[in-house]
Amino acid sequence: MKHIKLANVKGGTGKTSIACSIAEYLHAIGKKIECHDYDNVASHFKMFIDESAIDPRPANPDFTITDTIGALTNDLLDLLSTDVEDSIIIVPCSCSDSDINTTLKFARNLKRLRVNFIVVINKVSGLSHSVAKAVKVREQFRSIDIPVSDYFLPYTPSIENIASGSILRNNGFKHALEAILLEVTNG
């Protein structure tokens, strides 16, 4: 079983929306997903699971999806340090300066923990200046040996759009999500 954990110590980076999107996508292609919500402040992942057709505790799941709180705590570090061989931590980051700075610090902590992680640049509009900024941010991470996805997520969909399945009809978002999942699950 593969564990996909969404984490960043900053709130508002898209952890929950990406966790919901991954769960919805994997469910749509017939995978069994076990869902865990460790964000006790803003439990939107639990709301999504409650409203979706996903069984959050199936027998013999193919994947676990874990949404975490946007704060650096010992509990978060313990959670991220478990099941290391079978886990990938997805670290969403927008192109805002505060997201970039916080994510860089968090990524350095993850490197010290020796866990598998990848930064995913999120909330990238199709406008040329937005894409150019995302490319610059990606290269900034790579220049200091921080693993970063080749692909950008174009925006953070609302929980309602994810629950309705409409994100899976948006080819741009779906393609980016599929590509990122292939990267993190090694096919």
From TrEMBL:
InterPro entries on file: CobQ/CobB/MinD/ParA_Nub-bd_dom, DNA_Partitioning_ATPase, P-loop_NTPase
Transmembrane spans: none
Xref: Gene3D superfamilies: P-loop containing nucleotide triphosphate hydrolases
Domain spans labelled CobQ/CobB/MinD/ParA nucleotide binding: 6-164
Domain of life: Bacteria
Protein name per the record: AAA family ATPase
Source lineage: Bacteria, Pseudomonadati, Pseudomonadota, Gammaproteobacteria, Alteromonadales
